[in-house]
Amino acid sequence: MINHASPSGSTPAKAYFLVGAMCIAQVLGMLGVFAFPALLPHFIQLWDLSNSQAGWISGIYFAGYSMAVPVLTSLTDRIDSRKIYIISCLVGMIANIGFSLFSQGFWSALIFRALCGVGLAGTFIPGLKALIDRLEIRFLPRAIAFYTACFGLGMSVSFYYAGVMFKWLGWKIVFYVAAACSGFALVLCLVILIPRPVERNESTSPGLLSTLDFRPVWQNSTTRAYIIAYMCHMWEMFAARSWMVAFLTFAITLQADPTPFIAPTTVMAVAGIFGMVASILFGEFAVKFGRRRVVSFVMTISGLLGICLGFLADVPYPVLVCLCIGYTVFFQGDSAAIHAGVITSADPDRRGVTMALQSVAGFAAASLSPIAVGFVLDWTGGGNSSISWGLTFGAMAITAFLGLFLLMKTKNLDNL
At 411, is the pLDDT very low, low, confident or very high (cuts 50, 70, 90)? Predict the structure, then answer.
């Protein structure tokens, strides 16, 4: 792919403005992502849902994402990512408005939450592609670090916003406001992203029928290593995010004073902010000290903390809170560096399909890990002891060592 026009983010000031604006658009567009899980107890009671039905409505969001992202992201190799981003913002608006107006139970909610997932699939990674297509290469590592870190911020803001807005104005307004913010992201994109037609080199770029051909991507050993490392990262991160509140809730029962100074959900919100900052910081370190070295360090500490954490449920609660925040810092801290590794190692003519494969693989791992870890928890006693939680956290953290082993065995990573 050869873009002959000079990037719109060709100076530091323009680049910083473009990155900042896209980060704001991303966070605002994600307000509806965790709106349903945040209000899950209310919907279970309102619609008389079973736990299984509630789980399906929560999970269908990421199913919609996973089905749409390979197509939408791969298409960015053929058409301007800006168009995909704009259409997907519109889809997000329609989905959130539809949820407010028409959802009355399991089936209607399932449809609109799946559509919401499609909207995210066309904004998160295509938004990153739109950004890197408009920046000079010297700005890419920092831009990738900030943009990908804001994904974690968007998740935290979504959860917190939904709880606060629901308390004030009810659940329908939660989704109306989420739709309005998707509309604002759409307008912001129209203003700040200058149209940039894709000019392809026909000798190297994929044809229409091979747009979804992942084989050339997988044959790139460096890209493959970072994609598998991303899968390990997503497995650990989403499993920990899914189960850490339950772990802290169990730990409170072991304390002499059963009244916590900070609620488990608040701990995770605070930890998410620390994780976002860590992702940016380690992304900067990766540029300075080498990507493989930094990612390997982060994965090592993350794995060690994860293996130990579950066995420490009976330590004083303030200490445990600090350990959980520290664990979040490291299981989230390698996100930006891994994203940058995937993108910079990819064939420029196949960046879209490369990012599509990365996203599909990563979210497949993310969707499976909470289930697998839940089986471990049940198998070891249902989380009624520190040993049960220790083995459960071990099932999360072991993938950090798998990613570390893979990176150490792959050549040429330090050349990126």
Answer: low
